[in-house]
Amino acid sequence: MSPQAGRRCSFGRRQGGHMLRRVLLIVVMLWSGATYAAEITDSAGRIVQVPDHVARVLPAGPPAAVLLAALAPDLMIGWPMPLADAARPLLAPGAANLPQIPRVTGHEDVSAAIKPLKPDLIVDYGTISARYADLAQATQERTGVPTILLDGSLVKSSDMIRRLGALLHREQRAETLARFAEALLSLPPPANHPRVLYARGAAGLLAAAPDSDLTEVFRLLGWQVVAPDGNGTFRPTTIDKIRKIDPDVLVFSEPAVRETLAHDDAWKAVRAVSEGHVIIAPSLPFGWIENPPSINRLLGLAWLEGSDPETLAALANAIVYGHVLTPAEHRAVLAPLQP
């Protein structure tokens, strides 16, 4: 056999393998008894057959969970991450009381644990990349459950909300959320464009990479995100490295950083600290800057554009999370902003 013929045979076997997997997937879906009435193309370009009636939706990761909790908490099976005790009272009861479930987007194959939950649909929401597209496809093949991947970028949030709302027959709720997102995204950006370093951790020494999804809020503001050289989404750093990078503004995700800055004299050598340009972002019920990188980031965008945080917190919690904050809850949400 010629080398060319060998390559053709190998390609043919690969095609045959892909076709066999598709046939097996269809058989599994038919055996489940579901009625597949919609064929959609997700954000990764994958064509997915989705049931006409969806009663149980499994969020693949934290970003999808926040989106579903806002859009259709009655259809959501559970949280794929620990939900902070302080966050639960700030959510609608339908979302607050849900259990923790396996995380599809983690490092382990949780297909066997997903099947007993009997989801009708699995939704992932976030980065569109080969990795997550392959994960969605693999999850669908292993579980027999339709799995879609939606673009989690903030600028597309209203479109994704409407798409998912139509799929779940929650069009009216989706329109409310989508218009709220559009209103926040349409706010004029600030005139200044500082260099900003964003960090996690009680010590404030896990700096976010400039090009990650977690710093999208700053990029939309026109701020320049800076970080020490390195790999990964978060880069361990030191106070001296931050001093040398010399950001105009420091933004931290952990309220505990305030105590660190007050008692560690080394931070006083950092210009942003000595000039008082330090921001600690609210984190309840979810982070205003990220953590997770979902629609909760709209609050951080509007806040840093100059919106009154007190009004923003009250309105957003009622509109997005379906819970009107009590005065005590309102103070708890905004506690990181207190001097």
From TrEMBL:
Residues 56-312 form the Fe/B12 periplasmic-binding domain. One of its GO terms (biological process) is cellular response to iron ion. It holds the Pfam family Peripla_BP_2. It comes from the Bacteria. This is Fe/B12 periplasmic-binding domain-containing protein. InterPro entries: ABC_Transporter_SBP, ABC_transptr_periplasmic_BD. SUPFAM superfamilies: Helical backbone' metal receptor.
